[in-house]
Amino acid sequence: MLYDDTFPLLEEQVRFYEENGYIQLHNVLTREEVVALRSAVDVAADDRKRLQENWGPRVDEGYAKVFLQMVNVWERYPAIEEYTLSPRIGDIARQLTRSPCVRLWHDHALIKYPKDSKATAWHQDKVYWPMRENGALSCWMALDDVTVQNGCMWFLPGSHMLGPLDPVDLGKADEQSLLSLLPESMKHIRPVVMEMKAGSCTFHHGLTFHYAGPNVTDGPRRAMVTIFMPAGTHYKKQEHIVGDRGNLTEGEEFHGPLFPFIGRGM
Fold first, then answer.
1. How far apart (Å, rounded) are the C-alpha atoms in residues 31 and 35?
2. Does the N-terminal or the C-terminal CB of the chain have fewer CB atoms within 10 Å?
């Protein structure tokens, strides 16, 4: 069975995440697991095109060139479900948040297609999520080797300490500079590049500023992103493609089969 073992973290790794708002972990998936997950994402992308359906937010042409985004693909494809609900990945999130357990918020497959590609603007994720608390985090799993040339991630260390700032238009990276978003106290900090091999990943806090450049290579850059929230996270009424599905009321704790517990600390 795939994804059925653990990936324990050292205390120093958890502290690094707490201080910097991100961590890079190598060889979290085996080659076999990467091939299986990448193949399933390719099938999903082909199905979406064939069926002419939208499995993500309604977007304009500019945003569409940032990446193809398919949300909650775990509900349609068993091979992706096996990964998204895997104890291995969820337990890393549990350890990083020092939570007794975590719930799934949602997954989404992201594909930056080659050549006709745009950068993803610097932004924080949490400002788009309908959650009262700020502890949610994302696992960004590389399904291809990622480099600066094909649009790898960049993080601004410590930026999660700023709290929520204004949301940005993700499709207008050229019009949004990181420096214009930051207070003076953060403008001297250098972003960190996250090049890595397929099967490696990053986890980043929902308030950590991050960015991905355009894909100027000849091949796609595929990633699987899984978002986790510590158990006890409460719903905040806010428009979101996933948030309204649970029929939650303002201030209600996330619960139910749409937001299952993940990992071994349950």
1. 6
2. N
CA 229: distance to chain centroid?
12
Determine the pLDDT at residue 175.
47
**253 within domain boundaries:** no
- Amino acid type, 86: S
Distances (CA, A) of 192 to 15, 22, 154, 186, 244: 18, 10, 5, 14, 35
Cα–Cα distance measured from residue 98 to residue 133, given in angstroms and rounded to the nearest whole number? 15
Rounded to a whole number of angstroms, the distance between the first and last alpha carbons of the chain is: 21
Q: Which domain holds residue 115?
A: 11-243
Using only the alpha carbons of the chain, give its radius of gyration. Answer: 17
Rounded to whole angstroms, the Cα distance separating 129 from 207 reads 11
SS3 per residue for 121-166: EEECCHHHCCECCCCCEEEEEECCCECCCCCCEEECCCHHHHCCCC
pLDDT one-digit tens code per residue, 31-76: 999 999 999 999 999 999 887 776 665 554 444 456 788 999 999 9
What is the value of pTM for the model shown? 0.93
Per the structure, how many domains does the chain have?
A: 1
Q: How far apart are CA 248 and CA 244, in angstroms?
A: 7
Does a structural domain hold residue 86? yes
CA distance 38 to 206: 25
Q: Which two tokens stand for residue 1?
A: 């069975």
Strand ranges (E), the chain? 22-25, 68-71, 102-112, 120-123, 137-142, 153-155, 192-194, 201-205, 210-212, 221-230, 261-262
Selection from 120, 155, 164, 149 nearest residue 216 by Cα = 149
Count the Cβ atoms, other than its own, within 10 Å of residue 134: 16
